[in-house]
Amino acid sequence: MAELILLRHGQSQWNLENRFTGWKDVPLSPKGTEEANHAGTKLKGHRIDYLFTSVLQRAIETARLVCAVAGIASVPTERDAALNERMYGDLEGLNKAEAAKQWGDEQIKIWRRSYDTPPPNGESLADTAARVIPYWEARILPLLTGGQNVLIVAHGNSLRALVMHLEGLTRAQVLELEIPTGCPLWFDLDALGGVRSKRYL
Fold this sequence. Notes:
Blueprint: E1 3-8, H1 13-16, H2 30-42, E2 50-53, H3 57-70, E3 77-79, H4 96-103, H5 105-113, H6 125-145, E4 150-154, H7 156-167, H8 171-175, E5 185-189, E6 195-200
Parallel strand pairs: 1-4, 2-3, 2-4
Antiparallel strand pairs: 1-5, 5-6
Helix pairs in contact: 2-3, 4-5, 6-7
């Protein structure tokens, strides 16, 4: 049946600097470029019929490098802010360690990992899911149930929201869910879009 591959972009410059990134449009770090190229080698031989990315350059550049290395050419591509990273509001641009000193480790963990508690002037994971899931259902799921293979290159939290939806994770389970940069997560889906199996490539 249809294959869905989720890929978090390669390490960004602000990931490297341990800063909250969110909607800030920062580039890949040199390591992020390497991760994208490595992900491309993992996708060699996989048929990709459609590509979706956020509108942020770290996802777009990761997708470009992946397709170049994997030999995926002329694939229909759609970019949409619905797949953007969650917006971190007042935390964007701050060093995570410095933010923890100001607000405390536990509060930062709640803001980063909880389902419905947003940082000041930012989005919670629930807010992120409220834009990711309708986009998934309207634009992506119909392609998969039609037998098309899809690659989504996006961000840690937009992909966490999608995986939570696909796997029916609880709020407690999603708290500990981590999606690493540059590691393709492959799903085998049934005819209705249900998950039959998954693995990291």
